[in-house]
């Protein structure tokens, strides 16, 4: 799924850098449909909305000693396994990597695809992950209070749907 720049949430400074003299604002993202489901995380306090045919599953298990202390939420369609996005929250960054470094080393993002953006009004990076079955997958990463949030999309989730999920995030 390719998320085009027009669909990506971008910071106002990014818009100012790229706007033509006639342009005054970034294209608005599509409104989040009212029938989308809502999720509020009881542990970390973030919330988001997602398409009604997707089912959220918390895959978090015990972290191994010295592990990254990762939390994983998978949101997937029961009918189409490629209609999926995942949220990984890494609570430990022992090497002190920046979000950009994390994106390349752990999220398999193409370094040339990294650009600034926002999620839940927090600075973030947007990137394309290495191709899986000849399809690059979009990802959004942010450092929120020392936790790395990584949201990735499967191949059958549309760009508008993934952008809507990102737009709906609140911390």
Keywords:
mainly beta, 14% helix, 171 residues, globular
Structure, described:
The chain is mainly β and 171 residues long. The protein is built from three helices and nine strands, in the order H-E-E-E-E-E-H-E-E-E-E-H. The chain has helices spanning 12-18, 99-105, 159-168; strands spanning 37-40, 47-50, 54-58, 70-77, 84-90, 115-119, 122-132, 135-144, 147-153. Strands 3-4-5-9-8-7-6 form a seven-stranded antiparallel β-sheet, with helices on both faces. The model is unreliable at 1-26 (pLDDT under 50).
Helix and strand layout, with pairings?
Layout: H1 12-18, E1 37-40, E2 47-50, E3 54-58, E4 70-77, E5 84-90, H2 99-105, E6 115-119, E7 122-132, E8 135-144, E9 147-153, H3 159-168
Antiparallel strand pairs: 1-2, 3-4, 4-5, 5-9, 6-7, 7-8, 8-9
Briefly say what this structure is.
With 171 residues, the chain is mainly beta. Helices cover 14% and strands 36% of the residues.
Please summarize the sheet with the most strands: 7 strands, antiparallel
Going across the biggest sheet, name each strand in turn.
Answer: 3-4-5-9-8-7-6
Helix and strand composition category:
mainly beta
* Shape category: globular
What would the average pLDDT be, to the nearest integer? 81
- The low-confidence runs, each spanning 5 or more residues with pLDDT under 50, are 1-26
- Proportion of helical residues: 10-25%
The total of beta strands comes to 9
Radius of gyration: 16 Å
Following the backbone from N to C, one meets helices and strands in this order, namely: HEEEEEHEEEEH
How many individual helices? 3
Terminal-residue CA separation:
25 Å
The fraction of residues assigned to DSSP E strands is 35-45%
